[in-house]
Amino acid sequence: MAQYFEAHPDNPQPRLLKQAAGLLAGGGLLAVPTDSSYALVCQLDDKQAVDRLRRVRQIDEKHHLTLLCRDLSELASYAHVDNRQYRLLKLATPGPYTFILDATKEVPRRVSHPQRKTIGLRVPDRKGLQMLLELHGAPLLATTLIPAGETDPLNDPHDIRERYERLVDGIVDAGACPLEPTTVLDLTPMGTGGEPVVVREGRGSLQALGL
To answer: Are residues 200 and 101 in contact, defined by beta-carbon separation less than 8 angstroms?
Structure first.
């Protein structure tokens, strides 16, 4: 049965997030709010937790998972970033954008895309999630919480509790999320002089990035 943490959306209680971080450190799977929608998260380097995340979400290894990072310096440890890419990342973070970049050796092969060796990365703009990342001390592997066979992510924490309390170890309830997916940009073409490719237009403004 999942632990349920009712956190204030603007001023989350540190003691609750410490308990949630403790679950993650023990290999737990959590449902957490982001600046776009609720997501499932786990430790990056815990194979059992990652396998479980894929099973609960019912996705295969070709589905791009995302690394949630605290800031750009942490992001750069897990992806190859050149000067052009960095300037764009600086404009967009923190915020509701996901970037596809070439993964470094810090990313376990089992969580990068099997053919392309790429990884999705983002720096979320949500206080509670930033605090959780700080307490955890490392990026978290994430996927949007969309039930199998459905197209829309779950946004009501009580609904999440009803449907997932036997499948996850913890649920952080910080109220509703904006319920609009991140804008996804593939930055890998920039590494060879090309331009970023818009994979999905979502909550993140393309105009704000000059795209």
So the answer is: no
Q: What is the pLDDT of residues 2-61, one digit of tens each?
A: 899 999 888 899 999 999 999 999 999 999 999 988 999 999 989 899 999 999 999 877
Dihedral angle sign, alpha carbons of residues 64, 40, 36, 67: negative
What's the domain count of the chain? Answer: 1
Spatial CA neighbour of 189 closest among 121, 116, 123, 122: 116
Torsion of CA 84, 112, 18, 30, to 10 degrees: 130
Is the bond preceding 96 in cis, omega lying within 30 degrees of 0? no
Boundaries of domain holding 139:
3-209
pTM for the full predicted model? 0.91
